[in-house]
Amino acid sequence: MSPENHDLNAVLERTAHRIDDAIEQHHAQLDIGEIGRVRSIGHGVATVLGLPGVQAEELVRFRGGLLGLAFNLDRKELGVVLLGKQGRIAAGSPVYRTGRVYDVPVGEQLIGRMIDATGKALDGQGSIGSQERMPVERQAPMIMERKPVSIPLQTGLIVIDALLPLGRGQRELILGDRQTGKTAIAIDAIINQRGRDVLCIYCAIGQRETSIARVRDDLTEHDAMSYTIIVVASDSAPPGLRFLAPYSATSIAEYFREQGRDVLIVYDDLTRHARAYRELSLLLRRPPGREAYPGDIFYIHSRLLERSAQLSDRLGGGSITALPIVETQEENISAYIPTNLISITDGQIYCSRETFEKGMLPAVDVGESVSRVGGQAQLDVYQRLVGRLRLSYAQLEDLEDLVRFGTRLDEETQQRLERGRRIRQALQQRQFQPMPVVEQIAVLIAVTEGMLDTVPVEELERYLAQIRKSVREQQGHLINRVRQGHEMNQEEYQELRQVVEASISIEEQ
């Protein structure tokens, strides 16, 4: 035998011994699992055969790693909501159980980032480094775990802080027709939280990507992204992600609330969220109800908004304040989805098309708006002025109707009319210009006590600007005290009133 053949036989013999050793040492373990098959697939949903042990809202995995949510548990088939683009999935493709529910990453790493409903980064700043995750479906706090709403949440908008006050832990609906400034109110409320130790979450549901980019640019320009998280499910996202986006955002908010922090969350908007749920339900052949919405449309919004609350001191005292937005058609606030949400929330801010077209911004219709619990959290200093403010504002429209019909008014009625017009003008405010509490009080003192009754309406803005400037220059210490949560005492109130009178005198000269 040649040396080459001898070496080859030796190598083959050693290899055979290694194979025999590996076979002897190998202990086979059976892995029992369930595998289903795709029966049919549509726009954002799939019908699956098999998987008899799957549980409600359990995640299942398709070929290529695509995840789906078990939505319908029928006797013979499974209705699955796809959480991404369907890709190469077709009838007959295998489906596997994961044994876990849908969850999202949470943690400090999310602050300042823009993510989708799955927690994937969308801002080009790299992946989210958080390792901690929380399920998107969680039980709302029980009654005994909650604390009454008692701490104000300032929006920086004088018409809301004075007449429709919000408290931390409240749920206040913002509703109105398209392009009436609903999102602008929510964005101003977020911008006003700068320096107030309130974390903000903006959840965009079914919005155009250009609109979402504009919101992000506005928040960045006004230095609000440093305490804000944006959760996005744009109009191009699958309906499953549009449905889950507000639940993902709420779980992120609950993580921070359980750390004892205060959170403001904006849902923009729940009309599109309801439409996404209707789309999924019709595709999965659930029985339609009123306006083709499924029968549990009220439940999906109530279980979402009930998670916003102020926790008791025993649980850390954190809070989630919710500002859900809903769109109306032709100012019809008695439509199905708006009335559902009005009954769930603690009040509503109604943006009127007529007020918006008159150029009075924010276009809040005070008569149609209400805050059911915020007054309990309003600073006491507002209470001295709000009574007269409401009365003058309520009388204004009636008096204007009388004038429109040519009715002659006596001197006292004419004075009330003029004061009401000045109050309405004082409640107007440009976007991205939140007003601190002390400046709001100064403006309210000037208009409710008649200090500006002789000032022409067209010059009122100049006078109010001078009042605010004088307050900033002379009452900086008071602004800081009130910002830290201190009440304004009688001595400070009188001092502020003197500053208002002096600034008006200077402007008249």
Key terms for this structure?
six-stranded antiparallel beta barrel; Rossmann fold; Lysin; 3 domains; 509 residues; alpha/beta
Low-confidence stretches: none
What is the tally of helical segments?
15
**CATH topology assignment of the largest domain:** Rossmann fold
Strand order of the largest sheet: 8-12-11-13-14-10-15-16
Shape: elongated
Which class of the largest domain in CATH terms? Alpha Beta
Task: Name the beta content range.
Answer: 15-25%
CATH superfamily of the largest domain: P-loop containing nucleotide triphosphate hydrolases
Q: Can you count the beta strands?
A: 16
Summarize the biggest pleated sheet: 8 strands, mixed
Any idea what the CATH architecture of the largest domain is? 3-Layer(aba) Sandwich
Derived from helix and strand composition plus strand pairing, the structural class reads: alpha/beta
Helix content: 25-40%
Query: Could you tell me the mean pLDDT?
Result: 89
**Rg calc:** 30 Å
Number of domains: 3
Description:
The structure is a single chain. This protein is α/β, with parallel strands linked by helices and 509 residues long. The protein has three domains: 35-101, Beta Barrel (Elongation Factor Tu (Ef-tu), domain 3); 105-378, P-loop containing nucleotide triphosphate hydrolases (Rossmann fold), CATH 3.40.50; 381-508, ATP synthase alpha/beta chain, C-terminal domain (Lysin). The chain is built from 15 helices and 16 strands. The protein has helices spanning 3-25, 158-163, 182-191, 209-221, 239-257, 270-283, 297-305, 336-344, 353-357, 380-404, 411-426, 437-448, 460-474, 476-483, 490-508; strands spanning 35-41, 45-49, 58-62, 67-73, 78-82, 94-101, 103-105, 114-116, 133-135, 173-176, 198-205, 228-233, 262-268, 319-327, 347-351, 370-371. The strands form three sheets. Strands 8-12-11-13-14-10-15-16 form an eight-stranded mixed beta sheet, sandwiched between helices. The chain has a six-stranded antiparallel beta barrel with strand order 1-2-5-4-3-6. A hairpin with a 4-residue loop joins β4 (67-73) and β5. It is elongated. The model has no long low-confidence stretch (mean pLDDT 89).
